[in-house]
């Protein structure tokens, strides 16, 4: 018995095409199909696994002295620079489990992977595992290959020695592979074999680095919003204490004022002192809405829809009614998707200076209310 699984197989020739199969807990195929992302089934209670085409994935063993996976991934473009050239900067690197020493490393183009994940996100099919076909298929003592239509998937005991390629190239790439080790397979058979391998999978999960699972922005925003409201309530209370005490406890009032000013600057950098806070509260009573919280809520809600986008800082200009933020994204395409998501929520989006840093795009943006 295994957990039920929905296997989503990326087509190797068409970036918008999919093959999929739903396999039950008994290992039997329940349903399967092909088509574009609109034809994918809805999410059920099963595990969702994205299987990349082996043609798009490469791997090898390499000695990694780094102590952490983050350090290792940062070093890989340099360690493999002679082999990969300038293309290393556009790649997503994946590590198997283990510490410093010789490890299996895999890489694939980051942009196509981001596009695949965006298509799945739109269908509410966030993967619980991302792997490649030649890694996920169950290995045996000796290598074998599956003839999947016009392509061959070679599976080896050492996963980095596996690959997928045109069927006609198999005899050139692996001349020692016995003829009986090549087995034809259709979608249903491929899905059943993948489900078998996934049930006891111990290989790498491609959800690493920029594609690592992240906490939902809605949850982060909820925690932040509660803290902001609490900070504002404390500020109002502290302001009332200061006014009530007056000259009776001037030193205590000064200490309280200093503490509240510090909290005020941390929570709302645009508010300048208690008089400004009082005018702000008066405005809030008049309008019934805080533009800072309203714009922040829209930004975080939009960021939640774009996988790989992080909001690193906020700055609000009350005189202009605009919220500025530092955005970290996996690609410029993610910035464009964030822009569209913000626009859907009724706000303007202006992109400022952008730069590349640590394999990610750092961009300064400004959002505001539509006129």
From TrEMBL:
<keyword id="KW-0997">Cell inner membrane</keyword>
<dbReference type="InterPro" id="IPR024230">
    <property type="entry name" value="GspL_cyto_dom"/>
</dbReference>
<keyword id="KW-0472">Membrane</keyword>
<dbReference type="GO" id="GO:0005886">
    <property type="term" value="C:plasma membrane"/>
</dbReference>
<comment type="similarity">
    <text>Belongs to the GSP L family.</text>
</comment>
<dbReference type="InterPro" id="IPR043129">
    <property type="entry name" value="ATPase_NBD"/>
</dbReference>
<keyword id="KW-1003">Cell membrane</keyword>
<keyword id="KW-0812">Transmembrane</keyword>
<feature type="domain" description="GspL periplasmic">
    <location>
        <begin position="221"/>
        <end position="369"/>
    </location>
</feature>
<dbReference type="GO" id="GO:0015627">
    <property type="term" value="C:type II protein secretion system complex"/>
</dbReference>
<keyword id="KW-0653">Protein transport</keyword>
<protein>
    <submittedName>
        <fullName>Type II secretion system protein GspL</fullName>
    </submittedName>
</protein>
<keyword id="KW-1133">Transmembrane helix</keyword>
<feature type="domain" description="GspL cytoplasmic actin-ATPase-like">
    <location>
        <begin position="45"/>
        <end position="152"/>
    </location>
</feature>
<feature type="transmembrane region" description="Helical">
    <location>
        <begin position="223"/>
        <end position="244"/>
    </location>
</feature>
<dbReference type="GO" id="GO:0015628">
    <property type="term" value="P:protein secretion by the type II secretion system"/>
</dbReference>
<dbReference type="InterPro" id="IPR025691">
    <property type="entry name" value="GspL_pp_dom"/>
</dbReference>
<dbReference type="Pfam" id="PF12693">
    <property type="entry name" value="GspL_C"/>
</dbReference>
<dbReference type="InterPro" id="IPR007812">
    <property type="entry name" value="T2SS_protein-GspL"/>
</dbReference>
<dbReference type="GO" id="GO:0009276">
    <property type="term" value="C:Gram-negative-bacterium-type cell wall"/>
</dbReference>
<keyword id="KW-0813">Transport</keyword>
<dbReference type="Pfam" id="PF05134">
    <property type="entry name" value="T2SSL"/>
</dbReference>
């Amino acid at each position: 018995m295994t957990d039920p699984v929905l296997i989503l197989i990326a087509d190797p020739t068409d970036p918008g095409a999919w093959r999929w199969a739903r396999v039950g807990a008994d290992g039997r195929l329940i349903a399967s199909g092909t088509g574009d992302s609109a034809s994918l089934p809805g999410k059920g209670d099963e595990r969702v696994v994205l299987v990349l085409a082996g043609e798009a994935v490469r791997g090898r063993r390499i000695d990694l002295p780094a102590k952490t996976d983050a350090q290792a991934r940062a070093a890989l473009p340099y360690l493999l620079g002679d082999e990969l050239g300038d293309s290393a900067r556009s790649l997503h690197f994946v590590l198997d489990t283990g510490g410093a020493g010789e490890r299996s490393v895999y890489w694939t183009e980051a942009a196509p992977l981001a596009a695949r994940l965006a298509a799945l996100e739109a269908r509410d099919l966030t993967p619980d595992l991302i792997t490649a076909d030649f890694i996920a298929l169950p290995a045996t003592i000796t290598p074998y290959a599956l003839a999947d239509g016009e392509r061959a998937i070679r599976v080896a005991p050492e996963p980095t020695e596996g690959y997928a390629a045109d069927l006609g190239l198999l005899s050139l790439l692996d001349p020692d592979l016995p003829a009986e080790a090549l087995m034809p397979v259709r979608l249903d058979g491929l899905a059943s074999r993948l489900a078998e391998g996934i049930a006891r999978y111990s290989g790498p999960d491609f959800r690493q680095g920029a594609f690592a699972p992240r906490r939902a922005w809605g949850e982060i925003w909820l925690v932040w919003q509660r803290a902001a409201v609490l900070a504002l309530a404390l500020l109002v209370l502290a302001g009332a204490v200061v006014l009530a005490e007056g000259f009776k406890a001037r030193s205590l009032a000064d200490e309280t004022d200093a503490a509240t000013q510090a909290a005020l600057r941390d929570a709302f950098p645009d508010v300048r002192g208690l008089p400004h806070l009082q005018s702000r509260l008066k405005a809030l009573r008049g309008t019934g809405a805080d533009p800072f919280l309203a714009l922040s809520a829209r930004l975080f809600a939009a960021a939640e829809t774009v996988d790989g986008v992080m909001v690193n800082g906020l700055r609000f200009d009350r005189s202009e009614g605009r919220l500025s933020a530092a955005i970290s994204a996996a690609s410029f395409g993610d910035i464009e998707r964030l822009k569209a998501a913000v626009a859907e929520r009724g706000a303007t989006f202006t992109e400022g200076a952008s730069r590349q840093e640590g394999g990610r795009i750092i961009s300064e943006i400004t959002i505001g209310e539509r006129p």
